[in-house]
Specification:
It is a single chain. This protein is of the alpha/beta class. The protein is 44% helix and 14% strand. α6 runs antiparallel to α7, α14 packs across α25 and α16 packs across α17.
């Protein structure tokens, strides 16, 4: 009997075991604990389709609540979408945010990872998916029942904002390419485009474009070697760079038989026409930077959630992030995203300045012949001007990190706009001072004819090396000192005196630039340098070649000086000096210029480099400029930094300039209170 009982139980055991498994899986699920590192927990919480290619935990939870999973949605996206839309128990935020992320995933699958010349453009289906992703994100942000400010600290809102921004970036680039093609064909580039069932309009009015842009580049797709920091502002919208065709800044072509000799009447005619000795009127005096920062938004037509979900009408709005920090959308104050480094870096990378500046110094082809003013941001009448002057054999690239730090500082960016000059560093200092002043003043007059805006007042000049010497002369008054110094060496009378006076008089007589409130001189050889006169300096000086435009303009003047009566101090034939000649400590011009008085009331500062920290400061130099030449009595501050001559690039110098500018803002604010 016992044996029979055991046999029956043995036969029943498999059945009972299966029943136990069935009951356990259907109604008695077991919960276990799995340890997760706190760092992994944070990563998992913030992981989503943009940074992992997989849906976020929030989206997976929403799918689970609707009886779906990620693999099902990958197999049949339309069924997945319909199920989410028809599941009543999901709240609006869950549904909209999950659908936005799902559309991003679908759009990524249809969008080529990389495109090259000749590749087909993004398909209409991919563009449709990006627009849907942006639409659901837009609806979540503004029509889901809570305002963006109510969700300010929620990770999910940050994720959905990123879906919108990324989708807006992708759509904006495609729309730009199509609008540009229409514009080049003679059509209105703001005319709405039709893509599938979508009607897409573009609004670039906020940018004040003067020509058809060449490219629209996502800021996130470019990085730069040589820039220490990338400055941006989190917010709403796609961060882009709009690239315009840059002006050509080459020296004017001279006929094979050489430049035509000019007469005093020619000079008078030039002045009457307002040319002010410009050699070629076809070369512009100024340009706004050919790359500009842009923030793009996609606005979906409608005033309710139902309207937005039904509409097929979208407008692309483009803003300058420097000029616009916030906009009002559906009753909400929304901060605009912005990248303040990408356009500047892209402009410098494409400029070719490094090669061109050296070609200019040595008088080679494709150099520049005259100063050119660059506006680093679109003109703003309400921001004061910082004017930067680079040094010998250099270009605006010398300011790469300092300008970036100024434009990246929110307070400085709000108060200032940066202008830079690019000038031929082989030319005599007096000529460069004259032409830089004219180019600067003409540019300012173009934007502010009456000089009535905030931008035309309380300007700040910053100069490095020879640019510091020029900056000092721009804020100094020559009186008759330089002219009398010339006359003391030559016996000039009659027609010869008139000829020399017509050409050299304007260069040697000048007043301080008006409305300059402060200046910063960096490693500037105000009294010249012995390096320029030593063996190496003389060798470089012999290699420097003046452009034919300068030789043609002034050679007859120096011939007149040579033909004048015996020089007081010798019989050497005068020649047109180049910049190296002017930087010699023994040069008569630099010695006289160093004694000129700086404009009364001007606040000025010195930043000086010291190459060898073991030497006393008074006996030190930066490898090119000695302390005694860079030191200026009366400076409000003097900062000595252990560095070589390119001290303007060091973090310490950047911090010092920022300190001075912030102090300047405080002083100006105190003066107006």
């Amino acid at each position: 009997m016992t044996q029979l009982f055991l046999t029956r139980w043995q036969r029943l055991l498999p059945v009972l075991f299966a029943a136990f498994l069935l009951l356990g899986s259907s109604g008695c699920a077991m919960v276990t604990v799995k340890q997760v590192k706190s760092g992994d927990s944070l990563v998992n919480k913030r992981a989503d389709v943009l940074n992992t290619g997989k849906l976020s935990p929030a989206a997976r939870e929403t799918l689970s609540a609707a009886g779906l999973d990620e693999s099902q949605c990958e197999k049949d996206f339309l069924v997945c979408r319909s199920t989410l839309l028809m599941t009543d128990d999901l709240n609006v935020e869950q549904r909209l945010s999950a659908l936005s992320e799902l559309w991003v995933k679908a759009a990524l699958a249809m969008t080529p990872k990389k495109t090259a010349a000749g590749d087909p453009p993004m398909s209409d289906a991919a563009l449709d998916a990006w627009l849907e992703a942006a639409r659901y994100a837009y609806a979540y942000l503004f029509y889901s029942g809570r305002s963006p400010s109510d969700r300010a600290f929620e990770d999910r809102q940050t994720q959905v904002r990123d879906y919108y921004n990324y989708a807006a970036e992708k759509a904006a680039v495609v729309l730009f390419v199509r609008a540009r093609a229409a514009a080049l064909a003679g059509e209105d580039y703001t005319k709405p485009l039709t893509v599938g069932s979508w009607s897409l309009a573009s609004n670039y009015q906020q940018l004040g474009l003067k020509s058809i842009p060449a490219q629209l580049v996502p800021a996130g797709t470019v990085s730069f070697v040589g820039l220490r920091s990338t400055y941006r502002r989190d917010g709403f919208g796609a961060e882009l760079v709009m690239v315009m065709d840059p002006p050509k800044l080459v020296a004017p072509v001279i006929a094979p038989d050489g430049p035509k000799a000019e007469t005093a009447q020619d000079d008078e005619d030039d002045e009457r026409r307002g040319r002010r000795h410009r050699h070629d009127d076809s070369v512009p005096e100024f340009s706004e930077m050919s790359s500009i920062n842009v923030t793009a938004l996609l606005r979906f037509e409608g005033s309710s959630l139902d309207d937005v979900m039904r509409t097929r009408r979208v407008e692309l709005d483009a803003y300058s992030p420097e000029a616009t920090e916030r906009i009002t959308l559906h009753g909400e104050q929304v901060p605009l995203a912005g990248n303040f480094t990408a356009a500047y870096g892209l402009w410098l990378a494409q400029s070719g300045f490094a090669r061109q500046s050296l070609r200019t110094l040595f008088g080679m082809s494709e150099g520049i012949g005259e100063p050119h003013i660059y506006l680093m941001q679109p003109w703003d009448p309400n921001r004061r001007i910082i004017f930067m002057l680079h040094g010998l054999a250099s270009s605006p690239e010398a300011w790469v990190n300092l300008a970036n730090e100024i434009m990246g500082d929110p307070e400085l960016r709000q108060q200032f706009q940066v202008w830079q000059v690019y000038y031929p560093t082989n030319a005599p200092i007096a000529l460069n001072r004259y032409e830089i002043a004219n180019a600067f003043n003409d540019t300012l007059k173009h934007f502010d004819p009456n000089g009535s805006t905030r931008a035309s007042k309380d300007m700040v000049y910053i100069g490095h090396s020879m640019g510091g010497v020029l900056a000092r002369l721009l804020v100094s008054d020559s009186g008759d000192v330089l002219w009398n110094d010339l006359l003391a060496n030559y016996d000039l009378k009659g027609e010869r005196l008139k000829r020399v006076q017509n050409k050299l008089g304007p260069l040697l007589h000048f007043k301080a630039q008006p409305n300059v409130e402060r200046a910063i001189f960096i490693a500037a050889p105000h009294q010249g340098t012995d390096i320029a006169g030593n063996k190496v300096g003389r060798l470089i000086g012999r290699l420097v070649r003046l452009p034919l435009t300068i030789l043609g303009k002034f050679e007859d003047v120096f011939m007149a000086l040579a033909q004048a009566e015996q020089q007081v101090d010798g019989t050497a034939k005068p020649k047109i000096p180049n910049s190296i000649d002017n930087l010699k400590a023994s040069d008569p011009f630099v010695k006289a210029a160093a004694q000129l008085p700086i404009e009364a009331g001007l606040k000025y500062h010195s930043i000086i480099a010291q190459r060898k920290p073991e030497l006393p400061v008074e006996k030190s130099d930066d490898g090119l400029v000695p302390y005694w030449s860079a030191h200026l009595p009366g400076a409000l501050s003097e900062k000595v930094i252990i560095s070589g001559h390119s001290v303007q690039e060091t973090p310490q110098a950047v911090l010092e300039v920022r300190r001075i500018l912030h102090r300047d803002i405080d002083d100006m604010g105190a003066a107006t209170r």
